[in-house]
Amino acid sequence: MSVGAAGPLIALVVIVVVFAALNPQFRTLGNVQNILDAAAVLAVVTCGTTFVLLLGSIDLSAAGVMAASSLTVALLVENTRNAADYGVIGVLVAVLLGAALGGLSGLLLVTLKVPSFMTTLGVSAVGLGIATLLFAGVQPGVVDAGLRSWATGRFLGFTYLTWIAATCVLLGWVVQRYTRLGRYAMAIGGAEEVLALSGVRVAPYKVAVFTMAGAFYGLGAVMVTSQLGSGVVQAGADYSFSAITAAVVGGTLLVGGRGGVLHSTVGVLLLTVLTNGLVLVGVSPYVQGGVQGLIVVVAVAVAAAPLRHRNQVVK
After folding, report:
1. What residues form the membrane-spanning segments (predicted)?
2. What is the pLDDT of residues 22-54, one digit of tens each?
């Protein structure tokens, strides 16, 4: 691994050492558990975003997809609004809805030939519309003990959400490393024209990547719903930006073709550790936002500089 590729990991280690020296509470086991638990949902959402970024595309649909999936799962498991009690089936339906909305983003991209940030922004609006209709002015509280236990139950000291996130990261890495979908996603971002000229039908793989990303967003929404104990339209608020930020900070390029799930996971941990450490040392929340914004601007600039003049296709 080159020094440049290892940069985010080195930065993570440096930040951990600095905060551990500044505040003894930072290095306690309880705080480590808090950091990993806090990173769980973002890690899952970032897995989906990472594959889209590998294509060289931008996905802004997470907020709407997560909103629709959150209300869906809340209304299908045991809840305070209706008599539904479908348990795991409700979770699967919410994830499948996320996958369907993600697939819609991919279809619009390959058929309309417009930039992905426009199509995904439109799909996000569709998801928010679905969520608003399902919400109907009455917030559904989740009573289902199984779903609530995702956020409250623990195994080896960590919540089930953390273990779900770890499983998703592992699954994402396996898909990226050992499947045709993962390899082609990387190749499309690196040189889509060359791949197309070699006889590969690029469009189906783009749709498949967006569909997989939507499934990750749907699962992330179920996790948020477990944390909040209810379905909310704002379940995915800010996750689109946060996931892109984490992926880029971790070394996954906006222009595609480089990085991956493990890189992005380092970015998730870096941002989560940074937020946790700044809180513990008493830094103002306003300053925290400024620091994170500065980090992503610098990361994007550094990552994109070597590829600034690369030929582009519609992303």
Report:
1. 6-23, 35-54, 89-109, 121-143, 155-175, 207-227, 239-257, 264-283, 289-307
2. 888 998 999 999 999 999 999 999 999 999 999
Quote the domain boundaries for residue 284. Answer: 3-307
* CA 164 to each of CA 64, 128, 139, 222, 296: distance values in angstroms, whole numbers, following the listed order: 22, 25, 26, 11, 27
Q: Is the pLDDT of residue 308 over 90?
A: no
Mean pLDDT in residue range 152-156: 90
Residue 313: inside a domain, yes or no? no
What is the spatial distance between Cα 315 and Cα 110, in angstroms, rounded to a whole number? 9
Over 90: is that where the pLDDT of 61 sits?
yes
- Is 312 domain-assigned? no
pTM for the predicted model, two decimal places: 0.90
**What CATH code is carried by the domain that includes residue 280?**
1.10.3470
Phi-psi sector, 156: left (phi>0), alpha (psi -120 to 50), beta: left
* Range 86-90 contact pairs with CB under 8 angstroms and sequence separation of 24 or more: 87/144, 87/146, 88/146, 90/144
Confidence of residue 4 (pLDDT cuts 50, 70, 90): low
